[in-house]
Please model this.
Amino acid sequence: MSDLSISITKFLASRGMAPDFEALTADASTREYFRINWNGEPAIACVYPEPFDADTHPYLDVTNLFLACDLPVAQILDVDGDLGVFVLEDLGDRILRDVMGSMIDNDDPRLLREAISLIARVQTATNAAYERNSIASKLKFDTEKLLWELNFFKEHYFQTYKRSELSKATDEALSQEFLELSRDLEAYATVLCHRDFHAANLMIDRNGKMRIIDHQDARIGSPAYDLVSLLLDRITTLPSPEWLADKRRYFLDVRRTLGMPKLDEVEFAYEFRLQTLQRCLKAAGTFSYQSVMRNKTHFVPFIIPMFRITARAISNLGRFPVLNEVLLAEIAASESAEPHTLK
Model:
């Protein structure tokens, strides 16, 4: 029995309940999830590896913010900070990624449009985040945070995953480009973002309603941040430029419908490409780390596609030549080793 299984057993005993639970598969997280019997109904126990202060925990704070803004997240049924447990409404087992299959090739645009609309709805909660003094309003994708994530990629792709080192000159030039990119993106950080908004963090509940999960890390970021994450996270086939442009236009239309400030389509495309660089490299760093340090090798097939979509964005931007050279070299090496790699 794992340490977190022991925690959920102790928690249920403290509530006078039998140790009746089912372990659920976690993704790229240190948390574990269990389905439990809660007063005769199924519920989900989210168990953290360490105790926490229940009154100030980000999950409670952001959940209350989202619920106050009519955003579809699970209700919190109980909390035990000493044991590191949240008990949540059970949303079922239908993850959007499983329901849709390939987002790019899906014949039914309804679910993707609904997901895109949710991004805009999250952004409408920006003022409420500040008014409520939510932790999400105090965290931001500023230069420091963005740069930390890019350096995380550099460390864990090259050193942890590839077990190689960049030359000193390349390393220094890449660091300068990462700093430039991070400063540019900080200027766009004006709205509330989920921060990890992809199809594995969206669920279709038992009533067929789309629901948001894993929202505790919400923070202020660019309007493009969550859209990049939704459209480009964990792809193996690159979407066409036309497909991406269509989804950007739809997102801008939804924002206008919700009364948000109008964004210029051309300027937003530029912002989207900048954010593509940072978010996709951040994802590649996470995939690299998870595959080696936690043996989650199912992330490996997504790394090179992240490089391909990033390289295409660089081509459109006409900037960041060192990053472009590094990524093209990695793509070429992958194609040489695996001639049938998906493009």
In short: The radius of gyration is 21 Å.
